């Protein structure tokens, strides 16, 4: 499946303007533009986004929702803090991905609430670009930090896929403490190469939430992914 | 192992004062006090905590750190939003669990930076009390939301255990949408029963980050938990 180059929303959550993350963001957005994409950079700290959900809605939330709806590709870039996104980005999701907008959108044909592969953001693809201080081997199936797809399960399956977006494998950059300029240049090239091929990349083949795969309690039927547990059980067999 | 009843810090992150969560918080704190604990309730929304990490430190962070150090039991209570804590609580962790305070505390005897079972919060136990709209079966090894310990791995292992706190199994309350007063009373009784026995409860037996279990890349030695991956690989065999 080759997706047309189109419009990308690049959501960025890092507090320091001179960070490695800022350099990667600029390199990534430049690469997409060079390839023919239009890019909207949402720098949440610089824009002063308020990530604290008190009540639903608000003019700022509507504006962020319009940015999301305009995008064919959504990139969330953040440093891994406590094995998750910074509060700034978590709160952007908490507030912007509202019920009735991002999920539980009623399907007028069936009356069912759309989610998991069929939410309000269906038709989009989503990529997490994440920097971590951990060594590469510590984020692995037997590493102390756990497997990358387990770590990102809440984001990949519980957020991207839940709202209908196709989840691309996370672009995880490890061992960033004390990296030098040559190392940064290499990381920027690697990210550019990934983005250059992103329109043709296959997403993680998560199963849709249909009666074919899930029972009424929303657990897998016994004959689906028999014997498997964890994230791997929720993928189409390759 | 029976821990003395002592002092509990109950960190609470929910925006609405009249919520189910507020009733459970009050019931839980009352039960602990009735059992002889002293309890400090940190109501992050009501106290106006600023969860956005811009620069490290700050007088408010020092105050939260003192609250943590005073506690024998740390309870984090929150509604499950996007399979993780609300931004308010994530940011409390982002800001308060600083390097040199909660982890990478230098051990003067060995010069090693203490973490994973031996961080700056060692000697404490931690419990997550979490409400979710999901049906119980959907948060299970083959449920669409994934297994409870996989979902909470970043918090249980990557935060509690990383900073030296013993992680108790999460107290997960599912199916809370539309619950009635009788249902709330039952949930409060269940939580009280759990808390009444908490001093004697066995924590999750995560492996310490020592040369006995982990290699230099901080992955498990081949002979440790052979054949296992995921969170189960990082526990002592039962």
Automatic annotation (TrEMBL), chains A, B:
SUPFAM superfamilies: Flavoproteins
InterPro entries: Flavodoxin_fold, Flavoprotein-like_sf, NAD(P)H_dehydrogenase_qn
Ranges where the Flavodoxin-like fold domain occurs: 8-194
Single Gene Ontology MF annotation: NAD(P)H dehydrogenase (quinone) activity
Cellular compartments per GO CC: cytosol
Lineage: superkingdom: Bacteria
KW Lyase (keyword) present: no
UniProt entry keywords in alphabetical sequence: Oxidoreductase
Pfam families per record: Flavodoxin_2 (PF02525)
Family to which the UniProt record says this protein belongs: Belongs to the NAD(P)H dehydrogenase (quinone) family.
Protein name according to UniProt: NAD(P)H dehydrogenase (Quinone)
């Amino acid at each position: 499946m080759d997706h047309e180059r189109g419009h990308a929303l690049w959501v960025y959550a890092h507090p320091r303007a001179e960070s490695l993350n800022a350099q990667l963001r600029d390199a990534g957005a430049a690469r997409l533009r060079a390839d023919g994409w239009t890019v909207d950079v949402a720098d949440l700290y610089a824009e002063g986004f308020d990530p604290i959900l008190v009540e639903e809605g608000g003019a700022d939330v509507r504006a962020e929702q319009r940015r999301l709806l305009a995008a064919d590709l959504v990139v969330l870039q953040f440093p891994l803090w406590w094995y998750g996104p910074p509060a700034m980005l978590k709160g952007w999701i908490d507030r912007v991905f509202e019920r009735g907008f991002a999920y539980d959108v009623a399907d007028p044909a069936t009356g069912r609430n759309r989610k998991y592969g069929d939410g309000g953001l269906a038709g989009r693809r989503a990529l997490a670009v994440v920097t971590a201080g951990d060594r590469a081997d510590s984020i692995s199936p037997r590493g102390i930090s756990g497997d990358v797809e387990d770590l990102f399960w809440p984001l990949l399956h519980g957020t991207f896929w839940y709202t209908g977006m196709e989840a691309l494998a996370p672009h995880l950059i490890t061992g960033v403490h004390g990296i030098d300029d040559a190392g940064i240049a290499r990381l920027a090239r690697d990210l550019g190469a990934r983005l250059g091929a992103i329109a043709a990349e296959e997403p993680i083949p998560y199963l849709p939430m249909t009666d074919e795969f899930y029972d009424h309690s929303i657990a897998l039927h016994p004959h689906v992914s028999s014997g498997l547990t964890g994230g791997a059980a929720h993928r189409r067999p390759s």
